[in-house]
Every structure is written in structure tokens, then in C-alpha cells.
Amino acid sequence: MKVVVSVLFLLFSGLAAAAPPALDEAQTHRYHQLIDQVRCLVCQNRTIAESDAPLAADLRDIIGRQIAAGRSNDEIKNYLVQRYGEWVLYKPRFSAATWILWLGPAALLLAALVSAILLWRRTGRRAEPPAPDEDSLARILDDERRS
Amino acid sequence: MRLSFVLPALVVVVLIGLLGYGLTRNPSELPSALLDQPAPAFSVARLEAPDQLITQEAFAGRVAVFNVWASWCVACRAEHALIEELAERGEVAVYGLNYKDDRTTAMQWLDRYGDPFVASAFDPRGQVGIDYGVAAVPETFIIDAEGIIRFKQVGPVDRETLEQRLLPLVAQLKEEAA
Amino acid sequence: MIVELGHFALVLALCLSLVQAIVPMLGYRTGRTDLMGMAMPAASGQFVFLALAFAALGWAFLQNDFSVAYVAANSNTELPWYYRLAAIWGAHEGSLLLWVTMLAGWSLAVAAFSRSLPTDVAACVLAVMGMVSVGFLLFTLGTSNPFERLFPAAAEGRDLNPLLQDPGLIIHPPLLYMGYVGFAVAFAFAITALITGRVDSAWTRWTRPWTTAAWAFLTIGITLGSWWAYNELGWGGWWFWDPVENASFMPWLVGTALIHSLAVTEKRGIFQSWTVLLAISAFALSLLGTFLVRSGVLVSVHAFATDPARGIYILLFFAIVVGGSLLLYAARAPKLARGDTPVKALSREGLLLLNNLFLVVSAAAVLLGTLYPLVADALGLGRISVGPPYFNTVFVPLTVPLVILCGFGGAMAWKRTRWQVLRDRLWLPALAATVAGVGLSWVTLGTGGVVATAGCMVGFWAIATAMEELWYRRRTSWSRGVLGMTMAHAGVGVMVIGITLVTAFGLDRDASLAVGESKTMAGYQFTFEGTEEQSGPNYVAQVGHVAISDGDGNAIATVHPEKRRYPTRGNVMTESGVHSNLFRDLYVSLGEPLQQGGWSLRLFYRPFVLWIWLGGLLMMLGGILATTDPRYRRLRQRERQRADSHAVAAGA
What we know:
Radius of gyration of chain C: 26 Å
Mean pLDDT of chain C: 88
Radius of gyration of chain B: 21 Å
Number of strands of chain C: 10
Strand order of the largest sheet of chain B: 5-4-3-6-7
Order of helices and strands of chain C: HHHHHHHHHHHHHHHHHEEEEEEEEEEHH
Largest sheet of chain C: 6 strands, antiparallel
Structural class of chain B: alpha/beta
Strand content of chain B: 15-25%
Helix content of chain C: 55-70%
Number of helices of chain C: 19
Helix content of chain B: 40-55%
Distance between the termini of chain C: 54 Å
Number of helices of chain B: 5
Oligomer: heterotrimer
Strand content of chain C: 5-15%
Distance between the termini of chain B: 66 Å
């Protein structure tokens, strides 16, 4: 894949800074990752990556600059949250307020799998007729399908 | 009756409660992350006097209203009369943050509609705005004598907000300071 | 006058829906077949009146009758006639009318095919559908009457929301609603099962084709919605995890689980109460979706204009319908659950059990993510956002096992399967999937990435196993059921490949180009040739010309992204310019004008994006094939005879 190194900022807002800092490949990747996670505050329900709003352009610009300045993802997120609240992050951080959100699906899946295993164990114990050989099995299968 | 058969009904009862609660809320209304935080520091030129700096120190030691406005903002014009009224009452010092604007146009706007501000900070690139978590202009902050943000209004101030929230809070904060 | 007739027809439809809801149920209670027999004429009459009401509203739109508030708000004399017709369902009131009209259509279809159902079952099913209809008609007439007059009449309409002026709007909502509403049939059958206490294989055979048909509609409705959003919203995305999208996706997930559990209940006589619960849940989630879209509790890109009174009404209706059903379930379902037929892990029922668990957990995860902002707010934990990064993180690990499982579907026999059988049948598809997956993501696209390769392998696994199933059955004739299943499973594979590749290799760039300048991305050169102004029927557009050529300078196409301004509402809409083929889309949208005719452009390279919607199309076709399997008709006739002789015996 051709690596396109430069990140372009939306110059059309007319408010973005004069020269966007050049980012290397890893930084570009981080940049795209971050702008896909930040909510455009003045839009209905969009990320700043998707939005044409001037504020979204400003935030993209700030994120690009902070990456270029060597700030970590966490630092950048902190910067945004300090100003706009957790609301600005589309991927909520794991915290006392969000553990149900993050662990809920896994816990549900675990509970579901446990109940499936219990069902197999409960019903599988009982005597079963010996397994039919393969040919008759295929026949049974076909019969069932045709019926 | 086994729990597993009743569980779905229980889940739905909780769900209905939640949705009912949701109906009483406006999802786009957001509390400011800066509430009860010190007003962010800034140091920019004054709109009226490009050679003078204004900083958050301007608010120090008294209750202040910090109103974010711009000449391109239609809603700002709608609230402007009330901001002027607030300033004229003399209860509180009203400062402006001129957000993402052009200096000449902004000055013309103040000439035309009146200038209620002790001073306006000039923020053509919206840097100060971002530090104050400004999303949509106009916004209005109330900062107490200790320099702590105590209230934030997103969107234009209307008569009700002015009478019911801004003025009582200003009075209360002045008492606290005294 | 015609508008008043439409309104009157709506009122008559409400009366008939009351008859349909009450009389057959009384008949069932008292055992009077004459009362039960009222269900069919009531359902037919209701449909006729709703069709009349619908036609009246359509007439008002075609005639530009701006004395009707709904028409004045959503149409305009300059709007082309086809958009005026589509505007019927372009906003809340009219789309609700579409909802009830379709519900009546499904009722009519059930009534028409109910000759093969025992009279008491048909009466119960239609009565339950009548009750749902009563609720929605009361809602329409009480809070959202599309026939309300505007006085004085408006001189000109305020135009249809420009976002909706797209061919997608004409077909997407009707198909989506057909799916949503179609689950009302499965729901009615489930309630009937709880009332009559019978969930036998006959019941599942009646329920299966209806459920599969509704599922097929929902599938294509969602697919078209995704395609529409991709083309219309102008930022190259095809799924946004917006609350409104999730609202349609949750019933789809549960509906998919229902289709599979119905198969188990039919073939093995187990999971009865689970199947009934799924049928109730699928419809409950459809109603929940209606609530979320129309009440304004969540922030969404495309929610309807909201009104708290409507929210309260739908919530109340939801509470009565779903709460009532689940109470009935709690009371009656324990009696349905019959003998514990063994479920082996290595059997088709074992496989489908896993399938159901993953699907339901996926649906629960989507529900949790969608409603969590509300939960956090209610618990005083602050305002948070839950968006695409969360859903992708949680959803992908749940779906991958599901797609892998789907590959075992054909080879796994009911009751018990031996490892050897699976091994003998599936080694070749597994090998083929590995080769094709590695080949596609490494060789064709020039780079790998473990995730992309794995995603392609999983996708090809679903396709290869589906083909193996057909090969394995080459000597027996392929029933439509088997064909439908394999086609739908292959569709899943095609979709997975599309999603994987567009996610892994999709590119987008912003470029500010003066006229004549070009920008290279993904080996394609995009040359901006300027814009010109064109006027459409009700808008003025800046039409851009962007020539695309390949690396060697050979011209591929010129695309024409537009920026349209609709003066009536003052909206500016972006129309993307797309050059599409089976392997990639080249997608351009206009940003903002710059000095001297230059523009900022957004360029997108979307490899294999078409496969996502092709996959959805295959799934729908599979559903239709399975629905029309003649065995349902045959079996229904057999049941009918049995039921009749049963009725005669009971009567004697």
C-alpha cells in the first residue's frame, strides 16, 4: 500500500493555522484514530472526522498539532475532556461510570455460554442410542431436508 | 414460577422506567465540564485596543460575567439587548470574548448595537474559546470572586434566564464574596 | 373533500381494527366460530380503508394541497412528482400512516393464507394484530393526524427535507417498515401460542415463512439504508452506529436468531418458550425503535421532529404491548416448556443454540451501547457518548465466531454429528477459504495485516461452506429452503469480506485543489476540472467535474459531485460523485469553495464496498427463496386437513 505521509487539514475554515505540521506514518495513523473518536459538539451525531463544522476543523487541527508536539493519546483526550467533558469522546474511557458498558457484553456472553454448557451437561447425560454410521446419517439428513 | 420466565418482564419494566426518565431530559443539553473549575487562563489583545492585553486576571476579586459573542452570530444579536440591560444594572462587570471574528466588523457591530462590555478579549482563531469549551456561540459564563466558573449558559440568554438564574446567582456570589 | 374522506377512512379503519381485535378473541373464548370468522372481513375492510386514506394523502401531495398541514410542511410545488409521492412517508405523521397501512397489509395476507390455519389459531393471530393496529391508529389519529388542515392554507409548501430527496427515500422506508411491521405477524403467532398453549411443529411451520419474509424485508431495508447513507451523507461511511440505525439493527439481530430457533423448534421440538420469547422480543425491539426515533430521547443524525406527547404515547403503548406480552409469557411459558430432549454440542441444534446466544448477546450489546448514555444520565454518572469506536470494539468479537459457526450449518446434522463427518466435508472449504483469504488480502491488495487476512478468511469460509453444501446435495434436488440458507450464508461471507477490506484498506484524503490541479491517492489521480452552476427542479447546484485516471494516466471516469442549495429550506446538501465497480468505489465530495474557482474536496477510496450491499442483497434473496419453499404450502394443507378433522371430532 502506498503510504501517504502528509496529513491535510481542512484549510477552508480559514481559521486553521498557517502550516499544518507534517506527521509521520505512525502519527498519521494515530491522528485518524483520534479524530474518529471525538464527537463534533455542534453536530447532531457525528465525529469530527465526518463533520464540516468549523469547530470540528479546529479540533482536528488541535489534535494534529498535539500529535506533532509529541503528546500521547491520553494527554490529548485529557485535554479535550477537560474542556468539553466526557461527552466529547465516542469511545468512553473505562471508569466507575462505564464499567457496566464495557464489561456488560462480555459478562452476558459468559453467562450465555455457561447456560449452554449446563444445558448440554444436563441433557447429554441421558442414554443416547448409538451413533448411526455415516451413510445412514447422511440419509437421515437428506430425508429431513426433503420432508 | 421460575425466575427465567419472569426475567424478561423485569428487564422491560426497568427499560420502560429508563425510557420514561429519558423523556424528561433534553439530550442536547450539556453541563459544562468547567463548572466549579477555575476560569482557564488566557492572555490576548483587547478588541478595542490591539496594543493592550487582557487576561483572566481582569475578573479577579469580583463577580464577573463573561459573554462569548461574534458579529456573525445571529443569536448574539437576539440576546444583546439583555446583555446590555445586565451591564446597565451595574451589579456585575460584564466582559466579552469576541470569538472567531474580524476586528473591524466586530467593532462596527458594537457601534451599531451598543457595547455593554468593560472590555472584550479578541480571539480571532478561537483558541481561548476552545480553552473555555465553547461549542456554539453565544455562551455566557459567570465567574465568582475567586475566579471559579459557577454557571454556564449555552445559547442566547433570554429574559427568564436573566431574571431567574443570572441575577439571583450574581447576588448570591456577591454575598459570598462579601 | 378528498382529504376529509381520507381522514374519515382512517377513523373507519380504527373502528374495524377494534372489531378485528375484540370480536374474534371473544369468539375464541366462547368457542363461537361465527365470531371467529369476523376476523377476516374486518382485516380486509381495515386494509381497504387504510389504502384509501393512504391514497387520499397521496392525492393531496400530488395536488399540492397546502391546506393540509402535513403537505405544506413536507412538499413544494417545485418538488418533482415522485418525491411528492415519497414525501407521504417523509416525516412523522405520514410514515406512521405507512406503518399502519402495512400492518393492515400483513393482516390481510395472514387472513388470505389463513385458510390453511385452524380457525381458532387464525382468529387469535388476527385479533392480536388487530390490537397492535388499534394502538397505532389511535396514535395516528390522536397525536399525529396527517390530514390535519392548515388554516389559512399556505401559499407554498416548506419542501421536503432535502436529505430525503434521493431515490433511496422512495424505497428504503417502505422496505424497512415492511420488515419492522412484519415481525408483528411472528409476534401475533407467539401470543397465540401462549393463549392456546400449543407450540408444536405445526405452529412453527405456520410461523416460519412469515418470520423469514419479514426478516428478508428488514434485511434489504437496512442494506438500502446503508447504501443511501453512504451516497447521501457524503463522508464515505456506510454504517454509523447511530441510534436510528441501531433501532433497526436490533430487531434484525433478534429476528435472525428467531429464524434459526424456529428451525430447531420445528425439527426437534425443543426451545419452544425460547422461540416464543424471541418472537416477542423481535417485535418489542421494533416498537422500541419506533420510540427511539420518534421521541427524541437520544441525539441522532436523522430522528424525526419530536414531541413529548408522542413519546409518552408510544412509551405507554410499548408498556402495554410488551409488558402485557411478557406477563402472559411469565404466566404461560412454563407450561409450554416440554421434555428435555438432549442437546448435543456437536449437533445442528447445539450449533444453532450457540448461534442464538451470540446473536442475542450482540443485540443486547447494541441495546446497552445505544441506551447507556441515558443510563449514565439516570444514575447521575454524567453525560457520556457511546459511538462507533465502542460498537466496533464490542461487536466485532461477537460476530466473528458467529460467521465461523455459520460455516458449519450445512454439514452439521440434527441430533448428533461425528467429528469425522465435519472433517471430511469441511477440510476443503477451510483450505479454499485460507487460500482465497490470504490471496485476496495479500496478493491483490498488496499488503496484509493479520486482521484483514483473518477477516477475508472468515468471509470466504462462509462462502466456501455454502458452496460445499450445494455440491454435497448435488444428487438430491435442492429445495428452496436449502438454497435460501446457502445463499444467505454466502451473503454473510460476501458482506464480511466487503466490511473487512473497506475498513482495512479504505483511504480518505482532504485536498484543496485549484482548477486543473490534481491529487493522487491509492494509485488513482483525481484532477479537479472546475465547477459549473446548474439548476435542478427545486435547487441550485454547483456541479464539480473531477477526472479520475489510473497510475499510467489512462482516464477511468469523470465524476460529478454536487453541492446543492435548496432555497425553500435554505439547506445545503452534498451529493457525492462515485465511480463504482465490483472491486472499488472512487468517491468524491465537494467541501467548500476556495479562491478563483478552486474547491476543497474530500476523496475516498473504498475497496470492495459494494460487496457489503451485495451481501445484504444475497441474504434477502435467500430469505425470499426460503419463504417460498413449497413444503410450507404442502405442510399447511396437511395440517389444515388434520385440524379440520380435529375440529369435526371436537364438534361432534
